[in-house]
Amino acid sequence: MLRNSISKWYKKWYNVELNADTEILPLIGSKEGIMHICMTYLDEGDSVLIPNPGYPTYRSAATIAGANVIAYTLKEENNWFPDFDELEKNDLNNVKLMFVNYPHMPTGQLPTKELFHKLVAFAKKHNILICHDNPYSFILNKNPISLLSIEGAIDVVLELNSFSKSHNMAGWRVGMLSGSKERIDEVLRFKSNMDSGMFLPLQLAAAKALELDQEWYDQLNIVYTKRREKVFELLQLLNCRFDKTQAGMFVWASVPPVYKDGFELSDIVLKESNVFITPGGIFGNAGNNYVRVSLCTTEEKIEESITRIKN
Ligand SMILES: Cc1ncc(COP(=O)(O)O)c(C=O)c1O
């Protein structure tokens, strides 16, 4: 039932055909899925490519699995895309897995089809499995794309998706993994030793959520757009620079040079105004000169933060 709904959802929104019986694996959240994938594919001596800056769970899960983590740097001047020439300079022989995530957290960078084609070509050339973590494609983004929509991607890509962001179901713990039958069977072989089937009412609720139409995503994005406007105001007050076209649930901004880095700015704002903004360096040192502000709070709270900072 849930797998059928996921298959229809992928067709409707991403134009990707997935076999509901063999190419989809419902998950207890995509975070848990990252762990399942690392445990399935990584052993001691294997290497994994992870983005810097990036979601910290990729590094922790890969480390727990015993793998050697190779962080690839994303830079603003390269649109926060991987630099493939730099990637090629690494010893890629032991690299089994590469994590990518667009729309990217924490920078909010959207993907392009060209980037996705390059990723698939890179994976094929080096025989690396790509895990695309795609939870933000519906948040402040009119054009959701799946890496699986790229020709040939099914051979080298596993894609994670989540109900936490697109359907406000974070606490319910439901996610999904899509890919070829071979890959799904491999992950399931590990996962079925860790957990068991999902409570039926939860599956039914998740399936129902996937039937929601454009209006659902539109009203969700109206809320985030309003919050984002306020966050822009807050960041302007701190003289931070940011790109207004970013997607996802956060705003990423570079800190003015009067501060040593994002940690210093975050500390000052916390001490003087009792407002917490996340230092970008917690996502990797390539984020040191940035801060990330969450949109997961009410407009009123953001408004109050602005007032406190002004005062
Ligand atoms: C990039 C990224 N991937 C995965 C997750 C995990 O989402 P969930 O486990 O709720 O599906 C998050 C949530 O914070 C995230 O930011």
How would you describe what is shown here?
It is globular and about 60 Å long. It folds into two domains: 208 residues, Type I PLP-dependent aspartate aminotransferase-like (Major domain) (Aspartate Aminotransferase, domain 2), CATH 3.40.640.10; 97 residues, Aspartate Aminotransferase, domain 1. With 311 residues, the chain is an alpha/beta fold. Strand 2, helix 3 and strand 3 form a beta-alpha-beta unit. 41% of the residues lie in helices and 16% in strands. The mean pLDDT is 97.
Characteristics of this structure?
311 residues; alpha/beta; Aspartate Aminotransferase, domain 2; Aspartate Aminotransferase, domain 1; seven-stranded mixed β-sheet; four-stranded antiparallel β-sheet; 11 helices; 11 strands; 41% helix; 16% strand; binds pyridoxal-5'-phosphate
Describe the secondary structure blueprint for this structure.
Layout: H1 2-14, E1 24-27, H2 30-41, E2 47-52, H3 57-64, E3 68-73, H4 84-88, E4 95-100, H5 113-126, E5 129-133, E6 157-162, H6 163-166, E7 175-178, H7 181-191, H8 200-210, H9 214-237, E8 241-242, E9 250-254, H10 262-273, E10 278-279, E11 290-294, H11 299-310
Parallel strand pairs: 2-3, 2-4, 4-5, 5-6
Antiparallel strand pairs: 1-7, 6-7, 8-9, 9-11, 10-11
Helix pairs in contact: 1-8, 2-3, 2-7, 9-11
The protein binds pyridoxal-5'-phosphate.
